[in-house]
Design goal:
CATH class of the largest domain: Alpha Beta
Number of domains: 3
Strand content: 15-25%
CATH topology of the largest domain: Rossmann fold
Oligomer: single chain
Distance between the termini: 52 Å
Helix content: 25-40%
Structural class: alpha/beta
Low-confidence stretches: 1-9, 560-583
Number of strands: 20
């Protein structure tokens, strides 16, 4: 019920004047950018197209910063990283049909990683919607259907008056836990038509944050307080909820060892006495976690990678805190608590009893020693040296972005991120080409701080055009390209499985010369010089490329099968996909 004198409903004199006298020359695109600005957006990513010209023309009349990339999928990766770094919804402006569809892989990664991306696409003119007139350029029979199974929500606009509400609803959806990408599509004629609607000045979109049910946290606190061997698995939900500090306090209160998933890197300090680190592709770690009588899983669905390729078979009680309702108890029965990680951890901190276990740090040290011994027996000194060189060159607090390449697979398990929300990879959906455009988005989000991207030569060719973007905007991104002459991880999988590899060797350019042609300084390095060359590139302003010719190997993981524990050279889970990445 509203009231005649409700102050919220009474416009100020300035608002009233602006509403009665809107500036001339505005179109539907102006309503989009005004709404985005009103919601707090300062930067948009994208690529123009014929049906979206009204939208892009409106940018000229706004204060929004536009960062244009050379391919829609790369623009999506940049928006993804911007959203991860800032925690804000990152607008992604696209055109109809091919332009829209080219962004799908990036939106899938954003969905898998819960990155808040607000995609705004044009559509064919209104007359062609819903099976109407056919034959428009870029026309799809049902464009929204292509995105419905990927994004959190889809919003189709049919008139200018719907634009502010549709954008606002999408913004709220993107930022409601679990975060994720959303889709808004607006017909060409709606974007182009002149509008007499008032300037959008007051927009409110408060995201919803699921709070834990107190009776569930009470049961969880009781289980954890009475546990003999509690342990914790921390996933990406802890990072997204900015809850790493609360996680640490809870672990210390319980004396509970903590393992972080690959998406949860940095959620718990790497060198903490209770840190199991991220060796989830290791049978010793799997055994340790299976032996917990109460296992607290926070912000993870225990999917393929987090469960050692579904070999994880916990024997104790599981308490799972997860903001994504679809992931709650999706892989293991648990005391499921549908909640934001930060709110749930705070509730547990207030209710668990202090628990002391002097043996926990020693058990952690013993486990990490067994892992180190197993890795040390595999003649992998080069790979470990390279990862240490990257860590030594990258200043603390600077973000890094990793493509699907062998060095990244190492980094998932063995790289110390030295902080939450600093290490990001494409392991959510597993597509190639993520690292460099994502790093560009991070550099836009936090100017003046160096950003590292790590790719193989195969993945680098997916996004090499963005060297032009890096140079055009003078973004502080250093791109490390590990050149092994092909799709290295797939080469290893195929050799292990079939005895030889097919379709994995690639002709590739001289990356140093190619970067130079874009005006981007580049150097070819060696394993011995990598740390110095990388540190120098990161310290220099603007973009740079470091090329490392090297053939790397993966460590052999251990898995649990029906016959017991056994070392295997290949991973049972990942299978090659048509784009050359792996899952």
């Amino acid at each position: 019920m509203t009231h005649e004198h409700d102050p919220v409903l009474r416009p100020t004199e300035r608002q009233a004047a602006a509403a009665l006298n809107p500036p001339p020359g505005r179109n539907g695109g102006d309503l989009v950018v005004e709404t985005l600005a009103g919601l707090g957006a300062t930067t948009v990513f994208g690529l123009p197209g014929q049906h979206a010209l009204g939208l892009f023309d409106a940018l000229r009349r706004s204060d929004l910063r536009y960062v244009g990339l050379r391919m829609e999928n790369n623009a999506g990766f940049a928006a993804d990283a911007y959203g991860r770094i800032t925690g804000e919804a990152a607008p992604l402006l696209l055109s109809t049909g091919p332009g829209a569809l080219t962004s799908l892989a990036a939106l899938q990664e954003a969905a898998a990683a819960s990155a808040p991306v607000l995609a705004v696409s044009s559509q064919v003119p209104t007359a062609g919607l819903g099976g109407g007139r056919h034959g428009y350029l870029h026309e799809l029979a049902d464009q929204a259907a292509s995105f419905r199974s990927v994004v959190k929500s889809v919003h189709t606009v049919r008139s200018q008056s719907q634009i502010p509400s549709a954008i606002t609803a999408a913004w709220q959806s993107a930022l409601t836990a679990p975060h994720g990408p959303v889709w808004v599509e607006i017909p060409q004629d709606v974007l182009l038509a002149e509008t007499s609607l008032p300037v959008v000045t007051a927009v409110d979109a408060t995201p919803e944050t699921p709070a834990p049910r107190p009776e569930l946290t009470a049961v969880a606190a009781d289980l954890l307080s009475r546990a003999e061997r509690p342990a914790i698995i921390a996933g990406g939900g802890v990072v997204r909820a900015d809850a790493s500090g609360k996680l640490r306090r809870l672990a210390e209160k319980l004396d509970a060892p903590v393992a972080t998933t690959f998406g949860g890197k940095g959620a718990f300090p790497w060198t903490h006495p209770l840190s199991l680190r991220s060796w989830l592709e290791d049978g010793h770690t799997t055994d340790f976690l299976e032996d917990a009588d109460v296992l607290l899983v926070v912000g993870s669905g225990l999917g393929e990678l987090s469960s050692n390729y579904h070999t994880f078979a916990p024997r104790g009680r599981i308490v799972q805190i997860e903001a994504d309702l679809g992931k709650l108890e999706s892989n293991h029965p648990a005391l499921g608590i549908h909640a934001d990680a930060r709110l749930a951890l705070q509730a547990l901190l207030e209710t668990v009893a202090d628990r002391s276990d002097a043996t926990a740090p020693q058990r952690v040290r013993d486990l990490l020693g067994r892992v180190a011994e197993r890795i040390g027996a595999q003649d992998l000194a080069l790979e470990q040296r390279l990862l240490a060189s990257v860590r030594g060159a990258l200043p603390d607090g600077c973000p890094s972005f990793w493509d699907m390449t062998i060095l990244s697979y190492w980094a998932w398990s063995a790289f110390d991120p030295r902080g939450a929300n600093t290490m990001h990879s494409a392991q959510g959906a597993g597509g190639l080409g993520y690292a460099f455009p994502a790093a560009l988005g991070a550099a836009v989000a936090e100017p003046g701080r160096p950003v590292l991207a790590v790719s193989g030569d195969g993945g680098a060719l997916y996004s090499v055009a963005e060297l032009a973007t890096a140079r055009q905007h003078d973004l502080d991104v250093t791109w490390l390209i590990v050149d092994d002459g092909g799709y290295g991880i797939l080469r290893e999988y195929m050799t292990d499985t079939f005895g030889q590899a097919t379709a994995t060797d690639l002709m590739r350019p001289d990356f140093v010369a190619l970067a130079g042609s874009f005006g981007v300084p580049a150097v070819r390095t060696t394993p011995q010089a990598l740390e110095d060359d990388l540190a120098g590139a990161l310290a220099a302003p603007g973009p740079s490329v470091v090329v490392l010719p090297a053939v790397l190997r993966m460590f052999a993981p251990t898995h649990l099968d029906r016959a017991g524990r056994a070392d295997r050279a290949g991973r049972p889970g990942p299978q090659p996909t048509s784009d050359g990445s792996s899952r």
